[in-house]
Amino acid sequence: MLVINSGSSSVKYQLLDMAEADPADGRGAVRLASGVVERIGEGPGADHAEALRRVAGELDAEGLGPDSPGLAAVGHRVVHGGTRFTEPVLITDEVLAGIEELVPLAPLHNPGNIAGITVSRELRPGLPQVAVFDTAFHATIPEHAARYALDTATADAYGVRRYGFHGTSHAYVSRAAAALLGRDPAEVNAIVLHLGNGASASAVAGGICVETSMGLTPLEGLVMGTRSGDLDPAVVFHLARVAGLDTDAIDTLLNKRSGLLGLCGDNDMREIGRRMAEGDHAARLAFEIYVHRLRKYVGAYTAVLGRVDVIAFTAGVGENSAAVREAATRGLEVLGIEVDPVRNALRGSAPRLVSAGSSRVAVAVIPTDEELEIARQTFELVTGADAGQRGGDGPAARPAPRQESP
Ligand code: ADP
C-alpha cells in the first residue's frame, strides 16, 4: 500500500507491506519506504505533478515504484468528506467530483489532496486508489452534538455543522488505547487528546465517536500552535468593525497568527518549555491558557461520556510533553484521574500507561500512526469481499450510530 498525504505545500508518502498485518489494527505491517517533498509552490497543478513524479522516481530507484507488481493500491488522505463520505471509498471520476464539491468547506486542504489524487491516477491508470477522510470517524456524532444552534435552514443550505478532523488518528488511538488496557474497543470509553500543531479532542464511546472539538473547520476547540480554537464568534464582528479587518485578514489572524504563536511568539512546545524554565512570563501564560482549555475539554467530555475508562494523549505534544500531560490532568482527582509523576516523565515510543495504580481512569500515551491506519483501511477496502462494489455514498459498512447520524 502506498499512502499519500498531499497537502497544500508538501507531499508525504509511505510504502507499507501489509501482507503480514493484522487486519484489525495493522500490527505487523512493514514500512518499506517513506519520505516528504516539501515547499511545493502556490496552488495545485504542475507543482504537485512534479512532487509526485519525484516520489515515484525515489520509489522506482528502489524497485518499489508505481509500476512494481507488488503495489496493490494507493491510499490518499483527504481532509474533508462532508456528510457524503463517511467511510473509505474507491476513487472514481464521480468520487473525485464529489471531493471537488467540498472545496468551499476546506479551501486550504482539499485542493492539495485533489492534486495528489489526480496525478497519482495518471502515474498508473487502473491501480485502485482509495480516499480516506479525516472527517469520517466523526460521522457518528449525534445530531445534538453535530449541530450548532443556528437557524436550521441557513445551516442546512450552507453545510454549517460540526464535521471534526484528525479522525484517522482518533480512530487509531482510541482502538490502540483499548488494546493497551487489554479490552475490546466496544467496551471502552475514551477521551483522545490529539495534540500536534493542530490539536483536537474526541469522546469515543465503545469505539464510536460521539463528540469532537473541531467543527466546520479545524479552527474550533483547543488552543493550537497557530490557531485560536474556541472564541466568542462576536470577536470576528468586533475586529471587522473596530479594527477594520476584512474576512481574509481575520481568517489569517485566527488560523495562522493565534494560538501559542499569537500568545507568546513561539508555537513549538519545546521552545515554550525552555522559555518557561528561564522565567519567561508570556511563555508561561501561553502554556497555562493551553492547558486550561484542555482541562475544560476533559471535564466536558467526562460529562458527555458518563464513564471514562482511558484518556489517551497523542501527536507531537501529547506524546512528548510530560509537562502538558501533568498540567492538563492536575487537580482532576475528583474525576478519578491521577497521573503518576515518575511514569509520566519516562520517555518511550511504545503505547504506555502514565496513570497511578490508584487512578480510576487510565491515562495513556499512544503514539499515533495515521499512515498505517490509512494503509489498513485501504487494504481492507481493496481486499474486502465487497471491494469494487462501493461507490462512495452512504454509511454502508460503519457500525450503527447510537443516534441519528448526519
Ligand atoms: P503536526 O500537527 O504538524 O503533524 P506533530 O504531531 O508532529 O504536528 O506535532 C508537532 C509539535 O509537537 C511541535 O510543534 C512541537 O510543539 C511538539 N513537540 C515535538 N516534540 C516535542 C517534545 N519533545 N516536547 C514537547 N513538544 C514537542
Task: Describe this entry's structure for a reader.
By secondary structure, this protein is an alpha/beta fold. The protein folds into 2 domains: 2-133 and 370-389, 2-Layer Sandwich (Nucleotidyltransferase, domain 5), CATH 3.30.420; 182-365, ATPase, nucleotide binding domain (Nucleotidyltransferase, domain 5, 2-Layer Sandwich), CATH 3.30.420. The chain is built from 15 helices and 12 strands. The chain has helices spanning 46-61, 93-101, 110-123, 143-146, 152-158, 167-180, 234-242, 247-256, 259-264, 269-277, 281-305, 315-320, 322-329, 341-345, 370-383, and strands at 2-6, 11-17, 30-37, 74-78, 89-90, 129-133, 189-195, 199-205, 208-212, 310-314, 352-353, 362-365. Strands 3-2-1-4-6-5 form a 6-stranded mixed beta sheet, sandwiched between helices. Strands 9-8-7-10-12-11 form a 6-stranded mixed beta sheet, with helices on both faces. The protein is globular and about 55 Å long. The model is unreliable at 385-406 (pLDDT under 50). The chain binds adenosine-5'-diphosphate (ADP). Adenosine-5'-diphosphate binds at residues 196-198, 225, 267-270, 315-317, 320-321. Adenosine-5'-diphosphate (ADP) is lined by residues 196-198, 225, 267-270, 315-317, 320-321.
